[in-house]
Amino acid sequence: MSKVLVSIAISLMIIWVAGCGAPGIKLESNAQDQFALAKAEFDKNHWLKAIEGFQKVIFNFPGADIVDTAQFYLSMSYYNNKDYELGAVEFRRLMTNYPQSAFYAESQYMTGVCYLKNTPGHYSLDQEDLKKAIQQLQDFIIDNPDSPLVEQAQQAITEGMTKLAHKEYDNGMLYFKLYQYKSAAIYFQYVIDTYTGTSYAAASLYRLAEISFKKSEYAEALSKFNSFITVYPENELVPKAEEYIEQIHRLLETADVSDKS
Predict the structure, then answer these.
(1) Whole-prediction pTM
(2) Long-range contacts for 243-246 (Cβ within 8 Å, ≥24 apart)?
(3) How many CB atoms are closer than 10 A to CB 226?
């Protein structure tokens, strides 16, 4: 059973237990009072009771004006309870069922945040949720360029892209250390093309130059090291790139003298 199904089962159990007389959120006669009870639990950080309360608003008063607000706070309750997978489900439900809601844009953003929070901590593990988070946040920025959340979304995207780049760069380094330069170069070029704004793009360009040097392709290596210094003048690898350039010049001068003699 997936995490989402487990979370839904728990939510339904909460409602069932409440219906059996266990302490919980009582059923009010109107949506406003029902929402007020749920919001009071939300404000006290009682996330499970808040979930129960907001669900009662949604299920018992589906035509009420406040139902989209209840849906948003239901989603936030799951998020605050660290149930990010089901939080994403509920934020998406708001976007699907209430496209005109004042909470639509924030739900779009929070869906991406939920995906991001649900991502495994170590970059080497499966990062499918991270890819979904980046896409969701990119869509949010395109759809809401003036939102005050854009800066946070951009920062989250950069962090996510850096994490993905780290994984691909490490794959390249594995082949690099095994002297399988062709395979290593494929990974490094992918990082440069796909994750241009990350620090691993700079490191990948440096490694491509280093591969050319190790393959005795000195003209190509020289061009790449010079490009690296031009594009990333403050990078910590610049001194090593300059050492390679000096070494290449000496090798080329030696080769030129040998040819003349």
Answers:
(1) 0.74
(2) 244/209, 244/210, 244/213
(3) 15
Task: Give 40's Cβ-side CA count (13 Å radius).
Answer: 9
Neighbours of 11 (CB within 10 A): 19
pLDDT in tens, the chain (261 residues): 455 555 555 455 544 444 444 457 788 889 999 999 999 999 999 999 999 999 999 999 999 999 999 999 999 999 999 999 999 999 999 999 999 999 999 999 999 999 999 887 777 777 888 999 999 999 999 999 999 999 999 999 999 999 999 999 999 999 999 999 999 999 999 999 999 989 999 999 999 999 999 999 999 999 999 999 999 999 999 999 999 999 999 998 876 545 554
Q: How far is CA 240 from the centre of its chain?
A: 32
> What whole-number distance in Å separates Cα of residue 205 and Cα of residue 148?
35
Domains of the chain: 1-118 (1.25.40.10)
Three-class secondary structure assignment of 149-214: CHHHHHHHHHHHHHHHHHHHHHHHHHHHHCCCHHHHHHHHHHHHHHCCCCHHHHHHHHHHHHHHHH
The tokens of 98 are what?
């209430």
Q: Are 3 and 85 in contact (CB under 8 A)?
A: yes
